Amino acid sequence: VQLVQSGGGLVQPGSSLRLSCAASGFTFSSSAMTWARQVPGKRLEWVSSIYSDGSTYYTDSVKGRFTISRGNAENTMYLQMNSLKPEDAAVYYCNFRSPRDNSWGQGTQVTVSS
Questions:
Q1: Rounded Cα gap, residues 69 and 89, in angstroms
Q2: Whole-number average pLDDT of the chain
Q3: Which of 14, 63, 75, 81 shows the greatest Cβ crowding within 10 Å of its Cβ?
Q4: Within 13 Å, how many C-alpha atoms sit on residue 20's CB side?
Q5: Are 55 and 46 contacting, i.e. CB atoms less than 8 angstroms apart?
Q6: What is the pLDDT of residue 104?
Q7: 3-state DSSP call for residue 68?
Q8: What is the number of other CB atoms lying within 10 angstroms of the CB of residue 51?
Q9: Contact call for residues 107 and 93 (beta carbons, < 8 A)
Q10: What would the DSSP string read from start to end of 74-96?
Q11: Whole-angstrom Cα distance, residue 34 to residue 65?
């Protein structure tokens, strides 16, 4: 299993970013996928998940601002982040979990600052 992330960066409050997570080594289209984030010194926080049927779930703090999606043809998951706030700043990770595997992307830094 390999998860390769891209996107992220430094943006001003109110701006948008899109994160990508390219997956390989498993049947992406039938797998649930997750985004999580971590601020240094704090616990890893679940952000959003998308299931194979397209159903999506979000932590309350990002509802209405973030959108998780997936492109099964390209084996890639996305996180569109709009109206970013300073408290969204973190290292974001994508995750694939199965009974036999728990794999993480390399992480991508999102910085929100004026």
A1: 20
A2: 97
A3: 81
A4: 10
A5: no
A6: 98
A7: strand
A8: 14
A9: yes
A10: TTEEEEEE-S--GGG-EEEEEEE
A11: 16
Q: Identity (one letter) of the amino acid at 50? A: I
Residue with tokens 């649930």: 32
DSSP state of 25: S
Mean pLDDT of 91-96: 98
Convert the pLDDT of each residue in 28-38 to its tens digit: 999 999 999 99
Exposure string over 74-96, b if 16+ CB within 10 A, otherwise e? ebbbbbebeebeeebbbbbbbbb
- The structure tokens listed for 79 are 């996180």
Measure Cα distances from 52 to 23, 29, 71, 72 in Å: 14, 6, 11, 9
Tokens, residue 80: 């569109």
